[in-house]
Amino acid sequence: MMNVLENKNPGIVLIFWGLLLLAATAQANNRKGPIIEKIVVEGNSNFSDGKIKDQMSLKENRWYTLFKKRRFSSKKAELDEASLDSLYHVNGFLAAESEIRAEETKEDSCVVKVTISEGYQTRLGNVRLEGGLPQFEEETRKEMRPLKSGEPFNWTKLYDVRFSIGTIYANNGYPYAVVQILTSEGESGDRLDVTLKISAQKKVFFGNVTYEGLKLTRQNVARRELTVKEGEVYSREKIMDSRQRLYSTRLFNYITLKAKDVEQKPDKPDFVLRVVEKKPYYVGGRVEVAQSKPPEGETERELTLDFTGEWGNRNIAGTSRKIGLAAYYSFTIEPEINEIKRLSNRFSLRGVEPWFLGTRTVLDVDLYYEPGVRSVVQEYRIESYGGDLNFSREFTRYTKAWLTGSYEQVNIYSIPPEEEETYREEQRINVRRKIIFSGEKDSRGNIFIPLDGSFTQIFAELVGGFLGGDNHFFKTWFSWARYNNLSKRKKLNVLATRIRLGYSEGLSRLDLVPSFDRFYMGGASTMRGFKENSMGPTDEGGDPAGGNVMVVGNVEYRRGLFWKFGCTIFVDVGNLWEKPRQINAGDFKLSSGVGIQFFTPVGPLRLDYGRQLPIKESPETGRFHLSILYAF
After folding, report:
1. Banded pLDDT at 2 (limits 50, 70, 90)
2. Do both 109 and 139 map to the same domain?
3. Strand, coil or helix: what is 31?
4. 23 & 41 share domain
5. Are residues 22 and 60 in the same domain?
6. Cβ contacts of 539 within 8 Å, gap of 6 or more
7. What is the pTM of this model?
8. What pLDDT does 278 receive?
9. What is the DSSP-derived secondary structure letter of residue 205?
10. Looking at residue 610, what is its pLDDT?
11. How many Å apart are CA 324 and CA 344, to the nearest integer?
12. Is residue 501 part of a domain?
């Protein structure tokens, strides 16, 4: 150390002391704070102790924290002070302040004291609108509806309203509009009157767009995704939509779209699109060891070794067109004779045209070929090939539609013609050719834990008919779900409702809908309290046979509990029928129950308990259901 300190080079000395300071800081940060014995709240009269503690990240120890004790942290204390101040400020206590400190009671333990100075509560008085343009006045006043006279004065809500009004103007050509919040003391001393003063400024139009970072992608590929067009009226929403559309191409890792010289407030600002591109080529592979499905009537499974390899280009010649090749091989492993035999193989080719016929319609073609394998056990070789032709279109941010055609062909070689039909039935070879139309409108903010919005789906499928194949029927279903947030804040306090309807029918009197294409009900996602897929018509043996007509209705109240836990109360109603004319109000089944959820990164893990109603008629029907994600 002395040699370093006595060194005449001051830079080395500074580096030494800097490293020493960093080491001391790291050691201090690694020290654990004292264990929290109790949290004491003082000075609060408008909010309960429980409400105060709910806002804090510092928590008292409980029986379930035996193995990981909760400790005091000065950083958490600072954040909790800000959180408590925010709680009071949004409820009109504009001068409220909080202080959190730890008082050590014994070695490695402390009592956390929360001291609050509430002050007096201020309420919102009269709210006025001043200035602005007449064509936006109606829309502006709608955004002002959350500001209600007599409610606690809330700066955060005022700022939100100001931003919403500014967005109206920014989306209609006035990005420089200024919205001022002017306050004055009301008639009574505990109220503040508010005036929202709008200055529209000048109207603005989009200028030219220049591009940076496009080395692998053609400029017209990026240009066609932009809704920002030179000469059109400025719109902040179009800028956001343009970025979203560019990201959806999956060609870029990073995107910015910003105006030039914003400080000068130009009438026709030019924009710069900067991107960081992804590499166009990709190669992948996968090896799996599994057990094969046993043949019909047998229970013995074979150990299989599966290989999958793929290669692709997501940006052919910079046009955003995609191509992918994949090969799959499956082998059986027979340890007893030390031999590996090829079980099956499959080759696939996929191509994507993102702008079909010059429109923003995606054409996705997926072809496959399975040459089949001849072996001693399998006397005949089965060859199959086919593919999917899929058109998809995103109409708005929330609305999408798909049109898909599927073709399949199965050829059997080395078999007498008179035996082919029997062999197909024994091997359950079922050739399906179909056309599917589907669409959805999804305005949920979070697909795993929706707090608001709705989700609508429609599906129609034609199998066989003029397409040929072994099955001939029509199937359609409709589902609509709505999520109503009962809390003013973005918390889990939601009333969720859903209705789901379905219908299927053979194309002629002789055509039947296959059992695996019928509707099934009962279980964790439809009617809780009933065994999985147990409802509706049955076959001759009394087993569920599915139905051609489906009606399901669900009502569910969802609420957060503590930490990562939540709970639900639900009511389910519905049933299945063979024909529409068989629908009878007396046939509807009813169930109800409660559930608990644990929220994971991939969605809620839930345990529901449902009972069929009325209980007197079905006293032994209580059933638990364990599943991932909400029922709808």
Report:
1. very low
2. no
3. coil
4. no
5. no
6. 545
7. 0.77
8. 95
9. B
10. 95
11. 21
12. no
Tell which of 73, 99, 117 closes a domain. Answer: 117
| Greater pLDDT, 30 or 135 | 135
pLDDT 10s digits, 540-591: 888 899 999 999 999 999 999 988 999 999 999 999 999 999 999 889 999 9
Q: Does residue 29 surpass a pLDDT of 50?
A: no
How many residues belong to the chain? Answer: 632
- Pick the last residue of a domain from 143, 165, 199: 199
Secondary structure percentages of the chain, helix, strand, coil, to 5: 20, 45, 40
pLDDT of res. 56: 96
pLDDT, greater one: 25 or 184: 184
Structure-block tokens of residue 262? 């914003």
Q: Do 62 and 108 reside in the same domain of the chain?
A: yes
User: Which pLDDT does position 415 carry in this prediction?
Assistant: 82
Interhelix angle for 74-89 vs 155-170, to 10°? 80
**Of 39, 58, 43, whose CA–CA distance to 105 is shortest?**
39
279-to-276, 318, 350 alpha-carbon distances in Å: 10, 11, 19
Q: What type of residue sits at position 272?
A: V
**pLDDT category of residue 337 using cuts at 50, 70 and 90:** low
Burial 127-151 (b: 16+ CB within 10 A, else e): eeeeebeeebeeebeebbeebeeee
Above 90 in pLDDT, residue 490? no
How far apart are the C-alpha atoms of 213 and 275, rounded to whole Å? 5
Q: Please tell me whether residues 131 and 185 are part of one structural domain.
A: yes
**Structural domain contains residue 89:** yes
**Could you tell me which of 161, 179, 173, 144 has the C-alpha nearest to residue 236?**
173
Find, among 394, 395, 311, 379, the residue nearest to 348 by Cα.
Answer: 311
Return d(Cα 467, Cα 123) in angstroms, integer: 70
How many other C-beta atoms can be found within 10 angstroms of the C-beta atom of residue 194?
21
* Cα maximum dimension of the chain: 102
Cis peptide before 614 (omega within 30 of 0): yes
Q: Measured between alpha carbons, how far is residue 273 from residues 218, 382, 450, 531 in Å?
A: 13, 53, 33, 56
Same domain, 39 and 111: yes
Q: Which of 602, 601, 604 is nearest to 567 (CA)?
A: 604
Residues 11 and 57 placed together within one structural domain of the fold: no
Residue 342 lies in a domain: no
The domain that contains 218 carries what CATH number? 3.10.20.310
Q: pLDDT at position 36, please?
A: 95
Distance of CA 453 to the CA centre of its chain: 13
Sequence-ordered alpha helix ranges (H) in 175-303: 219-223, 236-248
Domain count, the chain: 4
User: Which H helix or E strand runs over 392?
Assistant: strand 381-394
β-partners of residue 450 are none
Q: What is the pLDDT of residue 339?
A: 64
Report residue 492 as tokens. 């889990």
User: Average pLDDT in the 502-530 region?
Assistant: 94
Of 515, 517, 623, 505, whose CA–CA distance to 572 is shortest? 623
163 and 223 belong to one structural domain: no
Alpha-helical regions (H) of 90-235: 137-143, 155-170, 219-223
Give yes or no for a contact between 228 and 257, defined as CB atoms under 8 angstroms apart.
Answer: yes
Residue 140 lies in a domain: yes
Answer for the pair 503, 517: CB distance below 8 angstroms, yes or no. no
**Residue range of the domain that includes 186:** 123-199
Q: Dihedrals φ, ψ of 421, to 5°?
A: -60, -45
